[in-house]
Automatic annotation (TrEMBL):
It comes from Erinaceus europaeus (Western European hedgehog). The gene is LOC103122836. Keywords: Cell membrane, G-protein coupled receptor, Membrane, Olfaction, Receptor, Sensory transduction, Transducer, Transmembrane, Transmembrane helix. The keyword Zinc does not apply. Residues 43-294 form the G-protein coupled receptors family 1 profile domain. InterPro entries: GPCR_Rhodpsn, GPCR_Rhodpsn_7TM, Olfact_rcpt, OR51/52/56-like. It is found in: Cell membrane; Membrane. This is Olfactory receptor.
Length: 314
């Protein structure tokens, strides 16, 4: 996908600094990141396994949850192993093509994750506002098509990032002052006009994330109207509880992601250490929280996990 025989234009490797300003603390910070990564991997694999083996969970909400878990695994694994190697072993070099591959996976699966959250909001909207028609609206084929559309959207929107960067010359400075390769961080090392790349990046982010946020917001406004109209207090409480967990997941992804994205372009007064820490956490906190939140809030998954630990039926 990205080849070049010109070593002066394409460096053999980049240098990832980790967390500039916290070099003396990185060794210990890595233990926290490692623990969070282990929770993310174990939690998401557990969710995928439970949904796979329990045929009663082969419903739209759980299929979307499986997609979210797969996206979380890819998103966290694309950065954390290399990040831990930087913090613990000072393995700061990353090969040029490996860096661009990391850019691709980070941005593609961030888009996929956003799209899956949008699909889950639509599922909750149909389930709460049109419960009698839920199974007829969201059939397995519709769920598969929606998941495939979200995946293709992420791949197609992000591929030009790597293609355009691969065709541009780089300056002699090959240092990336953060823990992983991100589109804007790599773009700042280019010795050419990057206005087209920046414009495309803004267009891609605001068209994808903007569309998803609008759909999610409208869905939850409609859900809120329906829930407030329920006569049963217990039913209202249950619906609010289901939606609250989803909203927590949404906020955990969008707030730090948008902060990181906008800081790269406009937040030059934001301390670098704050920016880099949030950039690291936004790729790790949602993958860690998602299986915990949905595992706790979803009775079937919670019972399956308890059954596995206890060795007996709940």
């Amino acid at each position: 996908m990205m080849t070049s025989g010109n070593n002066s234009s394409h460096p053999r490797y980049f240098i990832l600094l980790g967390i500039p300003g916290l070099e003396n603390c990185q060794f210990w910070i890595a233990f926290l990141f490692c623990a969070m990564y282990i929770v993310a991997v174990v939690g998401n694999i557990t969710v995928i396994h439970i949904i796979r083996i329990d045929h009663s969970l082969h419903e739209p909400m759980y299929l979307f949850l499986t997609m979210l878990a797969v996206s979380d695994l890819v998103l966290s694994s694309s950065t954390q192993p290399k990040m831990l190697a930087i913090f613990w072993f000072h393995a700061q070099e990353i090969e040029y093509h490996a860096c661009l591959i990391q850019v691709f996976f980070i941005h593609a699966f961030s888009s996929v994750e956003s799209g899956v959250l949008m699909a889950m909001a639509l599922d909750r909207y149909v389930a709460i506002c049109f419960p009698l028609h839920h199974s007829s609206f969201l059939t397995p084929s519709v769920v598969v098509k929606l998941g495939a559309t979200v995946m293709l959207r992420g791949l197609l929107w992000v591929s030009p990032f790597c293609f355009m960067i691969s065709r541009m010359p780089f300056c002699s400075n090959h240092i990336i002052p953060q823990s992983y390769c991100e589109h804007m961080a790599v773009l700042k090392l280019v010795c050419a006009d990057t206005s087209v790349n920046c414009t495309y990046g803004l267009l891609a982010v605001f068209s994808v994330v903007g569309f998803d946020i609008i759909v999610i917001s409208v869905s939850y406004v409609m859900i809120l109207r329906t829930v407030l109209g329920l006569s049963s207090g217990e039913a209202r409480l249950k619906a609010f509880g289901t939606c609250a967990s989803h909203i927590c997941v949404i906020l955990a992804l969008y707030i730090p992601a948008l902060f990181t994205f906008l800081t790269h372009r406009f937040g030059h007064q934001v301390p670098r250490v704050v920016h880099i820490m949030l950039a690291n956490l936004y790729l790790l906190v949602p993958p860690m929280l998602n299986p915990i939140i949905y595992g706790v809030k979803t009775k079937q998954i919670r019972e399956r996990v308890l059954q596995g630990f206890c060795g007996t039926a709940p």
